[in-house]
């Protein structure tokens, strides 16, 4: 997951705060993330980290992060606990909704993403792929992401969490097919920078 290669974790002057949900009663956030530093996965042990690491478990709620930044979280539909994040700052809204199945009650998720300047949404499948064999895998389809973004009056939609079997050519073809006259949509790619 990358943390073992995050060099600040090995610097004694660094303080790192890790926010996330508890996945089960037995698995704390610290156990899940810190468990990467075991000989099963990595040659450096958790005890060898030099940074001061603080684990903050969050759930579906609203959090004032200070400096005018507000975070709202939403429980998503995935086999393992996942949260959607809505960041509000100086009149701008950025939402992430990935690792989720489509909501049966669309209004529940539409209320969460409403009027977002940017929504980054799970779009691993086409609707045909999802309905034929991917339901229950914890991911959404492109048509659904576009539909809720339009209904939520989102300004920009980034399709995210592409199927690992997709080629760049397929993504390019999808970018022509899945667009809207109501909002700007695009397929996220590495090193994209988006200004709100």
Summarize the structure.
With 196 residues, the chain is of the alpha/beta class.
Plain-language structure description:
- The chain has 196 residues and is of the alpha/beta class.
- It has two domains: 1-57, no CATH class; 59-196, Ribonuclease Z/Hydroxyacylglutathione hydrolase-like (Metallo-beta-lactamase, Chain A, 4-Layer Sandwich).
- Helices cover 21% and strands 26% of the residues.
- It is built from five helices and nine strands.
- It has helices at 29-34, 106-113, 127-134, 142-151, 168-177; strands at residues 15-20, 52-57, 62-66, 69-75, 83-89, 92-97, 118-122, 156-160, 184-187.
- The strands form two sheets. It has a seven-stranded mixed sheet. The chain has a two-stranded parallel ribbon with strand order 1-2.
- It is globular.
- The mean pLDDT is 93.
Q: Which radius of gyration do the C-alpha atoms yield?
A: 18 Å
| Percent strand | 25-35%
CATH architecture label of the largest domain: 4-Layer Sandwich
Query: How confident overall, as mean pLDDT?
Result: 93
Estimated structural class: alpha/beta
Strand element count? 9
Could you estimate the helical fraction of the residues in percent? 10-25%
* Name of the CATH superfamily of the largest domain: Ribonuclease Z/Hydroxyacylglutathione hydrolase-like
CATH topology of the largest domain: Metallo-beta-lactamase, Chain A
Strand order of the largest sheet: 3-4-5-6-7-8-9
Major sheet description? 7 strands, mixed
Task: Count helical runs.
Answer: 5
Overall CATH class of the largest domain: Alpha Beta
Order of helices and strands: EHEEEEEHEHHEHE
What is the general shape? globular
Report how far the terminal alpha carbons are from each other: 27 Å
Into how many domains do the coordinates divide? 2
The residue ranges in which pLDDT falls below 50 over 5 or more consecutive positions are none
């Amino acid at each position: 997951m990358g943390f073992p290669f995050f060099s600040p974790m090995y610097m004694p002057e660094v303080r790192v705060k890790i926010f996330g949900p508890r996945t089960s009663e037995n698995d704390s956030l610290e156990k899940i993330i810190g468990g990467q530093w075991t000989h099963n996965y990595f040659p450096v042990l958790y005890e060898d980290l030099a940074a001061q690491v603080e684990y903050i478990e969050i759930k579906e709620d609203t959090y004032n992060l200070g400096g005018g930044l507000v975070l709202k979280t939403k429980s998503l539909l995935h086999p393992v606990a996942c949260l959607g994040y809505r960041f509000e700052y100086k009149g701008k809204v950025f939402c992430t909704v990935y690792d989720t199945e489509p909501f049966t009650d669309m209004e529940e998720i539409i209320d969460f993403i409403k009027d977002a300047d940017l929504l980054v949404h799970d779009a691993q499948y086409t609707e045909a792929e999802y309905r034929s064999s991917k339901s229950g895998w914890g991911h959404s389809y492109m048509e659904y992401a576009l539909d809720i973004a339009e209904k939520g009056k989102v300004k920009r939609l980034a399709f995210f969490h592409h199927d690992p079997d997709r080629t760049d050519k397929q993504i390019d073809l999808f970018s022509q097919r899945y667009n809207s006259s109501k909002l700007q949509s695009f397929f996220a790619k590495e090193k994209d920078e988006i200004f709100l």
